Amino acid sequence: MNEAVKHRDTIELRHLRYFVAAAEHGSFRKAGASLGVQQSAISRRIHDLEDRLGAALFHRHSSGVRLTFAGQRYLPCVRQILRSLKEGAQDIASVGRSENGMLRIGIYSSIASGFLAELLRTYGCRHGDIRIELVDGNPSEHIAAIRQLRIDAAFVTGTRDWPDCERTHLWSERVYVVLPDHHALVARKELKWQDLIEEPFVVSETAPGQEIHDHLIRELANLGQHPDVQVQSVGRDNLLSLVAMGRGLTLVSEAMTVAQFPGIAYRPICNEVLPFSAIWSRENDNPAFRRLLSLAKAMTSS
Q: What CA–CA distances, in Å, run from 149 to 106, 116, 140, 280?
């Protein structure tokens, strides 16, 4: 089929808009005035449309125009097409503005307080229609999910770069020791790693237990001591109960110390700071996530 025939068979959006306007106003002149185009343009495009359809859409008379039977049958179809186009454009625009959609975020830190809590709270106020799902897990699980686009981003400890992922450092938190409230070290406002050399520790087998375990081994091994670290198959609350019972100490990040639990006390470790970074896939084009990342960076720089 040559280009002239293809062009002759093409129905453009303006043809439909001009047709509806003429039908609603009963006049090519009034339709042109409502759309801001010349009457001759309306007349010419509707004539083109009739040629493409092979049917007359209007009866022309001196006072205006009136739909033919074919025009009456065609009008509801055209209105539905234009309405669908408008609704589709509005839907895409709302996604672009992050007015609806979903975010899946992998977390390590507590969301009870601190930077992450404030970030999610602020984002929720600005984009209330976005559904946010939080996923606990260790960094390797989060990274695998990010690469498969099963989660949008993860907030993890450290400043390590992961292959095929983007990373930006956002905030830092102090590291705290959790002790029984009757422990002798509670009398000190701040602790050093040397104070903990002889202490037993308990960690959970669930995240972030493995990271805490590795951190303890690394820090205390540097002081020439292999620490006693027991891994328990319990969640966070029961882990704190074990600490209160005197079964060992554990570590938490600063944001987690907002949780008040009977029988325990929190003490910071001197000069021990834990950096947190956002990790995401280079292929992630979720506008809801891009808004979150932009907000996080703005909060970091403010």
A: 12, 21, 14, 9
> Is the predicted pLDDT of residue 166 greater than 90, yes or no?
yes
- Tell me the domains of the chain and their CATH numbers: 3-96 (1.10.10.10), 101-172+276-301 (3.40.190.10), 175-271 (3.40.190.10)
Residues 6+ apart with CB under 8 A from 178: 240, 243, 249, 250, 251, 252, 264, 265, 266
Q: What are phi and psi of 137, to 5 degrees?
A: 165, 175
Whether the predicted pLDDT of 5 surpasses 70: no
What token pair was written down for 239? 């882990």
H/E element, 261: none
Residue 232 has pLDDT above 50, yes or no: yes
195: buried, middle or exposed (CB in 10 Å: 19+, 13-18, 0-12)?
A: middle
- What amino acid occupies position 263? G
How far apart (Å, rounded) are the C-alpha atoms in residues 29 and 43?
9
- What is the DSSP code string of 67-105? E-HHHHHHHHHHHHHHHHHHHHHHHHHHHHTTSSEEEEE
Burial 139-161 (b: 16+ CB within 10 A, else e): beebbebbbeeebbbbbbbeeee
Query: Which three-class secondary structure state does DSSP give residue 146?
Result: helix
What tokens appear for 281 in the block? 């896939």
Task: Answer yes or no: pTM beyond 0.90.
Answer: no
3-state class (DSSP) for residue 231 = strand
